[in-house]
Amino acid sequence: MKNSVVITVCLILIGFLAINTACTGSYAEDRAAIVDLQGRYLFALDFQDAEAYASTFAEDGIINWAGGEIIGRKAIYEFMSSGTYNPASNAEEGKWPAASRHFITNQVIKVEGNKAKALTYWFQATNNTADRRSMVLGLFGHYEDALAKIDNQWYFTKRTIYNEGLEGRHMAGQSNPAW
Amino acid sequence: MKNSVVITVCLILIGFLAINTACTGSYAEDRAAIVDLQGRYLFALDFQDAEAYASTFAEDGIINWAGGEIIGRKAIYEFMSSGTYNPASNAEEGKWPAASRHFITNQVIKVEGNKAKALTYWFQATNNTADRRSMVLGLFGHYEDALAKIDNQWYFTKRTIYNEGLEGRHMAGQSNPAW
Amino acid sequence: MKNSVVITVCLILIGFLAINTACTGSYAEDRAAIVDLQGRYLFALDFQDAEAYASTFAEDGIINWAGGEIIGRKAIYEFMSSGTYNPASNAEEGKWPAASRHFITNQVIKVEGNKAKALTYWFQATNNTADRRSMVLGLFGHYEDALAKIDNQWYFTKRTIYNEGLEGRHMAGQSNPAW
Q1: Which residues of A touch C106 (CB under 8 A)?
Q2: Is C28 in the A-facing interface, judged by CB distances under 8 Å?
Q3: Which helix (H) or strand (E) holds B100?
Q4: Cα separations (Å) of A79 from A73, A104, B54, B88, C141?
C-alpha cells in the first residue's frame, strides 16, 4: 500500500516532466542568450571588430545581404576586415571621428530545441556631420535570423538583412514575416 | 533497498518538477513571453496582419488610443482590417512601397501571478519619401499595458497608447508612470 | 502513512531549495532584472523623478558623465532634483509641454555571480518644436554599467555615459568595448 502510493506519486511526476522541460532548456534562457548575441553582433559591426563579428556566426554561418551571400565564419571575418560593409567615417579636419550605429528593437523569437528563428527591426544612424551634435538617420529594415545552439552556445547560422531603402531587399507591401 | 531507490527517484523528480514550476512562473520567463508578445504586436501592426494583431489581445481585450476605445478581440480584428489605424503608404510612381515602422524600447514590467503591467516607449518612422533611402521620424509616446496569463500564454487585456504629438494623449509634464 | 507524508513534504522543500540555486542564479533572471532596472532609470530620468532615479543606484553608486562624477545615492538624488542634467522643456505659448526621451537598445550583459557589466546604446529625442508632432533627434552614445546584486536586487554601482556628440566623451574610432 505504502509502496503503491509512492509509485503513483512518481508516475504523476514523470507525466509532468514529460510535458514540461527543465530550467536549462527554458525560453527565457535561450532568448536572453540570443538577444545578447544580437547585441554583440552590433557592437562588433559598429566598432569594426571583425573577430568578434565573425564569432557570432556558426562555423558554416551565412550572411545574406544586398551585396550577396557570404558563407562561413572565415569569409565573414575577411569581409568585415575589408571594411566593405561598414566603412569608417572620415573625420573632418579638426573634428573627432563620427560614429555609425545600428539600433535593434522588437525581437520576435521562436525556439525549437537547439534551433531558433528571430525577427528583429534595425535602423542605422550617424553623426557624420559638421557639428557631430546629433544623429542623422539612414537606412532601416529587419533581420531574419536562423540560429543554432552548439555546445550550449547560440550562433547565427543564417542572417538575412532586409532593407527598406533598397529595392528588392525591401519587405513593405509583403505579408507579415512573424506569426 | 528497493524502497530507497524509489525514494531517490522521487526526490530527483520532485526536484526537477519544483525547478520547472518555479521557472515557468519566474520573472524572466514571464518577461520574455511578454516582450515577445509586444514584438509580435508590432510586426502585425506594421505588416497589416489583422489576425496576428488581434491574437495578441485577450478575448475581451481593449485598445485605448486617440480615436477612443476598441473592446474585444473581434472588434480589434475588424478595426485593424479596416486600415483606419495604420493605413498603407501609397507607393509613388516607379517606386517600391514605403514602410511604416513602430520601434519599442525601455520596457519596465511588473508581474504578479497571472497579471502583469508593462510600460514601453514607442516611436514611429517611415520612408514614405521620394527616394525611400532613409527614415523620417513621426509620432512617439509610450504604451501602458495590462496583461493576463491565460492557459499559460500572455495577452494584452488593455493597451493604452500615449502619444506626445497629440494634446490630451501626452504625458510630458506629468508624473512618472513607472516605479 | 504518516512517514510518507513527512518524506513527501521534505522532498518538496528540498526541491524548492534546488530552485533557488538553479533559477535565481540564472543568466535570464539576472539579465531580465538588469534590463528592467535600465528601463526604470530612463522613465525616472525622462519624467524627472529624482527619487526613482536615485533608487536605481547602490548606496555608493557613481554616475560618470560629461559634467564629471557624482558619487553616492544621496548626491545623485540631489543632482537629479536640481534639474541640471535633464532640464524640463518650456512649453511654448498655447502648447502642451514637450517631452524629452532617451531610448536604449542593443544590451550586451555579462554576469559573474553578484556582479555584472552591461553595455547599452542610447539616443535622445524631443518634440520641443512648434507643432509637437514628431521627434527631433539629439545626442547619442552608449552606457557602460557596473552592477551589483545586493539583497537579491540589482543596482548600478557605476554608470559611465559615453556621448558621440561631445569630444572626449566619444568612443568612435576606438576599440570595441564589448566582447
Answers
A1: 38-39, 42-43, 102-104
A2: yes
A3: strand B100-112
A4: 10, 22, 42, 37, 26
- How does pLDDT run across B25-64, given as a tens digit for each residue? 799 999 999 999 999 999 999 999 999 999 999 999 999 9
Nearest CB to A105 within list C4, C27, C105: C105
Contacts C14 to B, Cβ<8 Å: 11, 14-15
Pick the CATH number of C2-163 from 3.30.450.40, 3.10.450.50, 3.40.50.1980, 3.40.109.10: 3.10.450.50
Spell out the domain ranges in chain B: 2-163
C18 at interface of A, judged by CB pairs closer than 8 A: no
For residues B15 and C122, what is the distance between their CA atoms, to the nearest angstrom?
Answer: 42
Q: Which residue of C has its CA nearest to B165?
A: C133
State the pLDDT at residue B156. Answer: 99
Facing residue for C43 by CB, picked from B14, B26, B177: B177
Question: B59-95, pLDDT tens digit by residue?
Answer: 999 999 999 999 999 999 999 999 777 666 665 667 8
Instruction: Please name the member of A21, A108, A174 whose beta carbon is closest to the beta carbon of B36.
Output: A108
Question: What does the DSSP assignment read for chain C?
Answer: -HHHHHHHHHHHHHHHHHHHHHTTTSHHHHHHHHHHHHHHHHHHHHTT-HHHHHTTEEEEEEEEETTEEEESHHHHHHHHHTTSSSPPPPPPTTSPPP-EEEEEEEEEEEEETTEEEEEEEEEEEE--SSS--S-EEEEEEEEEEEEEEETTEEEEEEEEEEETTSTTT--TTS--S--
Residues 113-172 of A with CB under 8 A from B: 119, 121, 123, 137-140, 164-165, 167, 170-172
Give the pLDDT of residue C95: 87
Q: Could you report the per-residue pLDDT of A103-128, keeping only the tens digit for each?
A: 999 999 999 999 999 999 999 999 99
Q: What pLDDT score does A21 carry?
A: 43
Number of A/B CB contacts below 8 angstroms equals: 142
What is the share, in percent, of chain A residues with pLDDT greater than 90? 77
Question: Among the CATH numbers 1.10.10.10, 3.30.43.10, 3.10.450.50, 3.30.420.10, which is that of A27-87+95-163?
Answer: 3.10.450.50
pTM (predicted TM-score):
0.89
How far is residue B140 CA from its own chain's centroid?
A: 16
Q: Which residue has the cell 521557472?
A: B23
CA distance A131 to chain C (A): 8
